[in-house]
Design a protein that fits this description.
Two copies of one chain form a homodimer.
Chain A lengths: L2 H32 L6 E6 L2 E7 L2 H4 L6 H13 L7 E7 L3 H10 L3 E6 L24 E4 L3 H22 L24 H4 L7
Parallel strand pairs in A: 3-4, 4-5
Antiparallel strand pairs in A: 1-2, 1-3
Chain lengths: 204, 204
């Protein structure tokens, strides 16, 4: 086997492993969906094993902090007995918001693998890249686009269903879910803030 | 009473109220200090009343998320039964980090009143101003410098004591706490990351 074949095989194995973990993050997102929450999920991996899972439960828990990423970070820290998640990687279906990106820097996590980007509110490169600011004392490696289509369509379909159900129940003239809802504002049915009405594709 | 006298009296009353709430935030910070945590505390006020309190417990809880601000946001959301903290104001002894500033935007809180700034890691204007980015769907009003000297000296003294105690116990040559520790890296005794060794005043 040549060196270049070996290198290619390593890339393929690495890609397959990333997809395996992202698939579990999608399974977590489906749990959010089952609660009528915007489907966002993640897992945290350490030494090749999943040590924590999380999904969006913001409306269910009535808790600002109950994003998928923060739920997983809390569990991972508990599992490791340390607030530092050095040596860990997070797999998350959607680009993190400013709070979750901030928490990832604070956790000193090594890497974040992202399913799809969120051009309207993402803070791992879309609006700003909080994960790699030289001014902070930690930077996080970013890998994008793992199982992109599955992650993206899961959100698109969620918002399409939401709009449809609102259309059926709404009085004429009632504000409906915007065509391109901001996925990070995790309750677009209730949230009609100006930024959300500005449209612009929420998913890359 | 002239209109200008009335306006001046209103400013004085307003200032006194802000100081009253900041004093309670300092009391919270002292609880952190009692646990050998970096003294950072905060309260959240709604309709003129404190609805939640929080202090830094990151090392004690072994939890990345256990900053003063996040602890208070979680409690306030529970109290109000809503992840949205609209109509609320946070009083915090030190400028929030990237995670806490992000959480404040996510919470839709109205205002943040800050004791002293953190030029090395603060995200309400020092490194970046996450609270007032036009690209996000919410901006937070910022008031700075309420009980500045008390808030600032509380931290300076904490780090001075820490350095002194380390000097007494350390072997010659052991790494000591840097002269100007980064207050947001809430365990400088254990944390000797490069950013911390760069010095630069941590408090304004």
């Amino acid at each position: 086997m040549t060196a270049s074949t070996e290198a290619s095989e390593k890339i393929i194995i690495d890609q397959k492993e990333k997809e395996r973990f992202m698939r579990e993050a999608i399974r977590q997102a489906r749990k959010a969906e089952a609660l009528d929450e915007v489907p966002i999920g993640c897992v945290i991996v350490c030494d090749g094993k999943i040590i924590a899972r999380g999904y969006n439960r913001r409306n269910t828990d009535k808790n600002t902090l109950s994003h998928a990423e923060l739920n997983a970070i809390r569990k991972a820290a508990k599992k490791l007995g340390d607030w530092r998640l050095e040596g860990c990687t997070m797999y998350v279906t959607l680009e993190p918001c400013q709070m979750c990106a901030g928490a990832l820097v604070q956790s000193r996590i090594d890497e974040v693998v992202i399913g799809c980007m969120n051009p309207k509110a993402g803070c791992a490169g879309s609006i700003i890249n909080l994960l790699q600011m030289a001014a902070f004392n930690h930077q996080v490696k970013i890998t994008e686009g793992i199982l992109h289509d599955e992650c993206s369509s899961m959100l698109t379909e969620f918002f399409r269903r939401l709009r449809r159900s609102q259309k059926h129940t709404a009085d004429p003239g009632q504000t409906s879910v915007p065509e391109q809802a901001d996925a990070r504002n995790q309750s677009p049915a209730q949230d009609q803030s100006p930024a959300q009405d500005q449209s612009g594709a929420p998913l890359s």
